[in-house]
């Protein structure tokens, strides 16, 4: 906030709003609005502002006019006198004064997030009870806030600076909390209406990648139609994650919100059933067929009938095929999929389940929560071992 503005009115407005926030009294609403406005304008100077920033600032200025006319005048001046400069910052990432975009100070948690969600922003809004705005902040980068809050391994928490003091902020759980709180008061927000582009995009695969692409294509004004061979949409979210981690109603709720906002989803349709998409009314095709094939270790005995891939087993569980196991089960691997398989195996008849992995306990890729969950279910973890072969008699070396 203290960076020299070098004549840039956008940069200068961010600093002035920040100072107004510091000088503001104890009135919670005024303080929160000033902080929100300062963050919106600062985002424009570092290239992370949403296209809706102008509408948001206009709305805030109208409210601030009742409690802080000076701050409201600052914002109105930025929007009117310097509106073109602001638009260049937001839409073109250009600063005529060469004072912005030189350095992006992204917090470690946001830098570690694969979706680059504005983590400090949504937490700040949630902390002041502005659940709807907090949810919109998450949705700007990720259309599955509740799902992500439940299943994401949360690399943001590993990067959280709070680890230097005690333990990380529970960012993942907070996303789920924001989605729950916002949905209790209002439905998820409708997509902002934009002028239709007249373009149509076909998406092959109704998993997280395909549905996410469809959401942002519709937000840009295009028409998006998703095709998938399965009975229900969701891909690996539905067929690869056990229900105890991701309840079906949570996934169904967020997919239904995506449908209501204009994304067409055509299920039980294989790509072979569709004529050449680019000659049947679509301008582009996005392939999102996912990674639903189980990884097989190249070793002797891997093709024996009692050896199965982890993802194949989870699919059979999630599709209600109710696989029945008996006796001792060995799960090879130390990641989250292996943990899910081990937990599911204990629920489907296995008398004893062991996880065997090459990594040491400190190196296991599975999250700490997953490891604690399977050990609580009685799964034994054998570290620093690798498989050599499986015998027809059922023994594994």
Question: Helical stretch count?
Answer: 17
Low-confidence stretches: none
Based on secondary structure, the structural category is: alpha/beta
Note the beta-strand portion: 5-15%
The H-and-E topology, N to C, reads as: HHHHHHHHHHHEHEHHEEHEHEHE
**Total strands:** 7
- Main beta sheet: strand number and arrangement? 4 strands, parallel
Helix content percent band: 40-55%
Shape: globular
Tell me about this structure.
The chain has 397 residues and is α/β, with parallel strands linked by helices. It has 17 helices and seven strands. The strands form two sheets. The protein has a four-stranded parallel beta sheet, covered by helices on one side. A three-stranded parallel beta sheet has the order 5-6-7, with helices on one face. Helix 8 (131-139) crosses helix 11. The longest helix has 19 residues, at 28-46. It is globular, with a radius of gyration of 25 Å. The mean pLDDT is 89.
Summarize the structure.
Helix content is 45%, strand content 8%. It has 17 helices and seven strands.
Features:
397 residues; alpha/beta; four-stranded parallel β-sheet; 45% helix; globular
Present the secondary structure layout.
Blueprint: H1 9-23, H2 28-46, H3 53-64, H4 69-80, H5 83-92, H6 108-112, H7 119-127, H8 131-139, H9 145-151, H10 155-159, H11 171-185, E1 200-204, H12 208-219, E2 223-227, H13 236-239, H14 248-260, E3 264-266, E4 284-287, H15 310-318, E5 328-332, H16 336-347, E6 352-357, H17 368-376, E7 380-383
Parallel strand pairs: 1-2, 1-4, 2-3, 5-6, 6-7
